[in-house]
Amino acid sequence: MSLNTANRAKVIIIEDDKYMQLILTEYLNKLYEIETFNSVLDGLTYLQNGNIPDLIVSDLNTPGVNGFELISQLKASTFFNQIPIIIISGDDSSEKRIKCLNLGADDYIVKPFNPAELEARVRVILKRVGK
Predict the structure, then answer these.
(1) The model scores a pTM over 0.70
(2) Angle separating helix axes 40-48 and 67-76, nearest 10 degrees
């Protein structure tokens, strides 16, 4: 059965590591329409051009603008503040997890992780927001 992309939730992935980008895309594109970006700035430009995803998965430690700044910018915007955000990071620091959640991230996943767990978390968040 082929899924029509028009009926699939749109997820953007912001990840500068090409290998991780490939893993995330290959796993999630079975269920979701995926767009990938190497930097937060590229992802923000995409949003500002009128492309609104149903969810964002972003690495915390991207070059230039990082995940903290992404969360802050999105949550400060009346137009983008309802987009759910999952942060992924190789840093399992409790302080960073708490900071991301306090800034407005919906979830924080530590690398390495099971892609099936990420997909389950994406599914739960999308269900919660009615997508």
Answers:
(1) yes
(2) 20
